[in-house]
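User: Quick sanity check before I run a bigger batch. Here is a single chain. Can you write out its predicted 3D structure?
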Amino acid sequence: MPLKSKQPRIEPLSPPYDEEAGAALELLGYSPIQLFRVWARRPELARSIAGWGSYYFSRRSALTLRQRELVIDRTTALCGAGYEWAVHIAGFAEKAGFDTAQLESLATGKPADDCWDAGDRAVLEAVDQLHATFDLSDETWANLVAVADEDAALELILICGWYHAISFAVRALRLPPEPGTESLAALVGMAAVGPDKRAHDPDSATRRHENTATHRRES
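Assistant: Done. Predicted structure follows.
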């Protein structure tokens, strides 16, 4: 689970931003979350990262939005990066079509869970294997290419690696949750109490899928 701290180890920039930092943040495409405001302390770093993000968050990517979010959500969950998990669940879980069972499986389950079809399962198996072994077996590669193509498989590997780096950063920086996002720990807790208790908490689904004002990227 994410490490806890009262404040970030590197303080994010706060508005008003200078011209260079503001321009770099604008390239990232939406109201700046804390991680972006840390990057913007060095605008050249933020600009470089924005170039990569503008590709894999666009329709030019070989991955579908759902495949991309499977990769990101599973990777951040495996890394215990609750900050980044929460940002993506708030911003993209509904767009990706994830239901409650699938969110719980992404957080604490496994690719073999009944909530996944063969296509989703092939993606998740690849992510889990990359995380565990830093490699893909011939069987896992073949299953992945069967539900996507080779270009998508390459992008999956790169995005999985990138979100390991993001996970390292948000954990080591001790970034607190963004306002309006539900933590990975909270979702794990909801999974632990079971569906009967969740049924008596009408706000839980709303909190889980709420889009925040800080996460308006269009894919």
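The chain is about 65% helix and 0% strand.

User: Great, the batch can go ahead then.
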